[in-house]
Amino acid sequence: MKLKKKYVPILFSLGIVFGIVLGSFLNFGTSSDTAFFSSNSKKEKLNKLIDYIDYEYVDTVNTDSIVEVTVNGILDNLDPHSTYIPPEELKEIEENMKGDFVGIGISFYPYQDSVAVIQAIEGGPSAKVGIQGGDRIVSADGIPLSGKAMDDDSLSKILKGRIDTSVNLKIKRQGEDELISYRVKRDVVPISSVIANYMLTDQLGYIKINRFAESTYDEFKKALKELKSQGATQLALDLRDNPGGYVSSAEAIADEFLEKNKLILFTKNKTGKINKTYSNRGGIFEDGEVFILINENSASASEIVAGALQDNDKGLIIGRRSFGKGLVQREMALGDGSAVRLTIARYYTPTGRSIQKPYELGNKDYFEDYLERYENGELRSADSIKVADSLKFKTPLGKVVYGGGGIIPDVFVPKNTDYEIEHLNYLLRSGYMRMFIFEELEKDRPYYNTLSIEKFQNEIIISDTIVEDFISYAQLRGINLRAKKYRDVYKRYLKATMAKQLFGNNAFEQMVNQDDAIIQKVVSISTN
């Protein structure tokens, strides 16, 4: 794989910027009090300027764009997490963070001038009526969907709609001569944030959360109960690469591990007002042993959970220092479908730590802090983590913890120093294989759709030929991959991606986690 080392961290920092922006949306409620929006000369000055441009400027100007530039300019002078969200982005973000949407419940792909079903979401409307992966949607309510190019947004508008409304689909299925008709009633379709839960050993369960949405706590509680029923007395809670989300979900999850009346976090605003949040019920895993997995991309609500448990001497934090985001935002709608997320307070862990890293040097340095960690060796050695004695705190049992930028783990696990394998893992996790695997499944779709997960694991073998085909597929798209050195990695991800399309995220995570260094460390600690 042709890749210069100096470019590798940049790929990751780009992903971090987007993720942490998403992860900064902590839901402390939206204030309806507008008393402080009184008229003043500063606002009148802005209004006069915009009106003057609108009416008198020599050329036609889109004043909406001027307003957006103005708003962004103001927020850029505050902090990295006070952000403006345009209308077209806000709707998508709210749907994602709500944890569900109304639709027919499929993942699809425009493929060869047709709409190909990649997977019918388990428990969703399409799965209930019998739609399968590989099906081609020929028409919806008489609207032809084949034989012409359509983008994802256009297709979504046709397939989505109001709850309890129906759409009539014509389906072409491999092996069937005639079109199949389905009437699908639109319903609420979950967007899972708990993307994996399974047993690592007879006693150790595993749960991976990729964001903290409205539905995350309910998903987590359901997954934890399932694992307990399977014998789990220990839990690995994977919050790596989790950018955060709603603080209420993080608080509720932390509560399940803590005894009643334990401090989870407190917030402090500009006037010094402090609000404290305590555990308020008997947690279903108070007596269990917990390991929290974090890395440099774990932020916001992820750090709230990790900090609450670390400061209450509950379990072990394993991995690498987290991102360092300890600011609280509140959303204010701007009346045109857009909104502002404004930082209104800082949050602190139970011992009094602020884990917010500095941002005085500007947003660019703030979000590229990852590159500095990469260069100073922190991602490879715990000794390279900078701590300040002035930010030293002690837990009730006397363990020393530090503030000043992120949660420092109790057990450090270095990042793989093989730059190429790091980039490869990032690339393959990003879904790049999706269309290649879809085409591979299409070679014998009726067979693959009859497989159980057990039969799939035992019977499906990724051959060297398939690896070579994928290498060629990538090369045609401008990506040169080394086949021999990383053949086993390709085979694992190819099979995992195939399992994802057939059985969902849980199967994918189980397969790609097989050689995961942090999970291996957790298993080792839990069995000793």
Automatic annotation (TrEMBL):
The keyword ATP-binding does not apply. Coiled coil: none annotated. Pfam families: PDZ_2 (PF13180), Peptidase_S41 (PF03572). SUPFAM superfamilies: ClpP/crotonase, PDZ domain-like. It comes from the Bacteria. InterPro entries: ClpP/crotonase-like_dom_sf (IPR029045), PDZ (IPR001478), PDZ_sf (IPR036034), Peptidase_S41A (IPR004447), Tail-specific_protease (IPR005151). The chain crosses the membrane at residues 7-28. GO terms for biological process: proteolysis; signal transduction. One of its GO terms (cellular component) is outer membrane-bounded periplasmic space. Keywords: Hydrolase, Membrane, Protease, Serine protease, Transmembrane, Transmembrane helix. Residues 90-152 form the PDZ domain. GO terms for molecular function: endopeptidase activity; serine-type peptidase activity. Belongs to the peptidase S41A family. NCBIfam families: prc. This is Carboxyl-terminal processing protease. It comes from Dokdonia pacifica.
